[in-house]
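Anyone able to model this chain together with S-adenosylmethionine?
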Amino acid sequence: MNRNFFEVLYAGTEDPWELETSDYEARKYALTLAALPRHRYRSGFEPGCSVGVLTARLAERCEHLEAWEPIERPRLRCRERVSAAGLTERVTVTGEELDPDAAFPAADLIVLSEVLYYLPEKKLGPTLQRLFAAAQPGADIVAVHWRSRDEGMEMTGDEAHAELRDPRHGLQLLGGWREEEYVIDVFRLPERT
Ligand SMILES: C[S@@+](CC[C@H](N)C(=O)[O-])C[C@H]1O[C@@H](n2cnc3c(N)ncnc32)[C@H](O)[C@@H]1O
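re: yes, here you go
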């Protein structure tokens, strides 16, 4: 990841995308949570969790949630939020980074919210392959991304979702939601045969 870009951004403000306060984000989170195909999950995974607004909501649907945030300032804020919500025992927040060599959890829910377009283009496919290989058979994957490209991004959200839809990943597309600004896609990994 372009660590320096995020370090500078978070040094200027704790919540650069106003995830805690914006009506736009609140509605997008509500749609994302409504899109989860199952009500309860055993083991959720949310890489790139930032200050943890979605994390705390996802934790209500998961027996255990693993959240990754490589930058310290938002990671500490995420931990504070999880603790204030009384969810510390159900949520693990670490500083790991989405990367092909990462130690991915055996999740039955993976939420990829506004994170994939920060990966270098050549790393996206291999990272997803390793992520899906580690996940539980039949796991649900919910991806939500702003459709355009902005500073720090290596591709548009539409390009990131085109990669997720690539048949070589073998995901079943269950449904989705598309607006002018962002896209939500809901996938399922095949059950083991
Ligand atoms: C736009 S924020 C999204 C926050 C959260 N997922 C949400 O939707 O509310 C992107 C976050 O992803 C993190 N990030 C960027 N590249 C990453 C990577 N390779 N692995 C894990 N996190 C990453 C950044 O530090 C930043 O906090």
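The two ends are 35 Å apart (CA to CA).
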